[in-house]
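Quick illustration for those who missed Monday's session on complexes.
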Amino acid sequence: MSKEVVLSGIRPTGFLHLGNYFGAMRNYVRMQDEYNCYFFVANWHALTTHPDTKELQNSVHRVIAENIACGLDYQKVSLYVQSDVPEIAELYLYLNTMAYKGELEKTTTFKDKVRQQPDNVNAGLLTYPVLMAADILIHRALKVPVGKDQEQHLEMARNFAERFNHRYGDVLPSPQAFNFGSELVKIMSLDGNGKMSKSENQMNTLYLADDDDLIRKKIMKAKTDSGPTQPNSFKPDYIENIFTLLKLVSDQTVVNKFETDFNNCVIRYGDLKKQLAEDMVNFIKPIREQAADIQSNKALLSKIIHQGAEKARASASATLTEVRKAMRLNY
Ligand code: AMP
Ligand code: TRP
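Prediction with adenosine monophosphate bound:
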């Protein structure tokens, strides 16, 4: 039996961080053997908010390099850049005739963007969910690993697919959100205020590109307090987050020691952070170094990107042939 298609996109609009790693990329790596995976860099989407293409080119290369450094095997998955697959743009055009102005204007992310960039409310922003639907439907993907914030977009993709099928015949399957295995972890910002994110709150976010000293500095500044006064106390969010990070990158014996110290009210947060900083340095360093090697190897990058585009276009053009046939556009 052929493997189910999994697809996800990453916007190249900033540096990838630990939240992206543990919330997304680590799962992509686990999926690559079981599913037919398409992962792509959403550079057309980025243009709706980041029109500077000089920056964009670097970011696209970095996202590709970092994904491989995190364990994606470009021989197993299709790792490609959105703008290398023109078939997506054609499907986007057809789906645009099935998307209504009213529903697009009601989309939460559109309303957020209107607030954030009132001087650049371009049509690309309005039709963002249509392009995202085209990204997914072009490979007839069934499973889409994305965070909660993307659920509305996925629902719209299902609506567009259903409208297409109703109007022209059954071609496009309905994609669903997909969590691989257990609950997804959420990585909080080091000051305990909200999630780690690509471009906000940079001194409280650990990026995969951070050097050793910067990692140490950020962790040593992470928010703590004077420690618990009652045995077996409840941990405040920002302390819980430090333990979450410790569990992700340190040995179990280390975690156990600090858990016990916390429960006995003898924990020294300075020591905890020093230990976490060293373990985090050891965790991030090989990823950063491998990503930098790949990023400076333009020949390799180009080979990876071309190979990805070829695989993606083969699948995309097969769907488009069906779409055109159903629409009687195959003259
Ligand atoms: P974004 O950086 O918002 O474009 O998200 C890319 C992917 O990383 C999505 O699947 C998110 O759910 C995931 N992600 C982003 N930030 C975090 C975070 N702080 N903790 C866990 N997952 C995250
Ligand atoms: N909209 C997604 C985000 O902001 C990125 C994205 C674009 C995507 N196209 C996609 C995700 C298709 C999954 C499938 O994170």
